[in-house]
């Protein structure tokens, strides 16, 4: 092959490589700004998900982590509970929009959650702890640092100092309904602001969030058929850590969450300032303990007190 022919061939290869580089770069850019995928219809689900269980929020373990509420997911064995947990956001300034079930065309459709600069529509479902059905009132980003609203978020102020107190007013009746639409579902539609948030740049759940869901699906005790809507592991301080200290049970759950019932009792303190106004946060009132009667003393003890000699 002549020199001019080789030069021409090299030029073609260089041009093709440059075109491929531009194409890959454009694809990468498209992935970064892509909106979340459309909701996936689970056509086999023709029964509504169970009501949301009642549980308390474990305290935030690391400053900057954001609460992701628990939800009912669907698997081969039916509904199973994915415990609420604290997770690190994938990017500064991003918030979590929870997923939700919506009734459409006779079936229940799951709308997956996502990360974004604003909280979008999540069916009007009141997940609690700042997720009142619209937006998020549990915290906000301030100058690249996440601050926590102590009125609805459980934080230890000796560990986390970026806090504020802001009363959260619920404009809707708080229920435990876990889906939107249909008979008995939450009748809410996206607001104009929520529709804008849905078109913003989004990021999918983090790998740790996906692992958290997979661990929940593999746990037989989290199946709705087994726990009847009262999971023994309702919330965890860290994702995919179902046996770690601080695991919280749902109210009415039987058995132990992780062999450490004292952890659940410590977190269920209704006097915790972080639990004020938190939805489903207060445990059921305990019945007063039976009054114990003092044991009867032996007659010999009375003789000693009176100075009488002990009977022999």
Keywords:
312 residues; alpha/beta; 3-stranded mixed β-sheet; globular; disordered N terminus; disordered C terminus
How would you portray this structure in words?
This protein is an alpha/beta fold and 312 residues long. It is built from six helices and 14 strands. The strands form five sheets. Strands 1-8-7-13 form a four-stranded mixed sheet, with no helix packed on it. The N terminus and C terminus are likely disordered.
Summarize the structure.
The chain is α/β, with parallel strands linked by helices and about 300 residues long. Helix content is about 20%, strand content about 15%.
Unreliable parts:
2-40, 259-293, 301-312
Please tell me how large the radius of gyration is: 27 Å
Helices and strands, in order, run as HEEEEEEEEEEEEEHHHEHH
Could you tell me the number of beta strands? 14
What class do helices, strands and sheet pairing give? alpha/beta
Helix content: 10-25%
Mean pLDDT: 78
Taken as a percent bin, the fraction of beta residues is: 15-25%
Main beta-sheet annotation: 4 strands, mixed
Largest sheet: spatial strand order: 1-8-7-13
Task: Write down the overall geometry.
Answer: globular
Domain count, please report it. 1
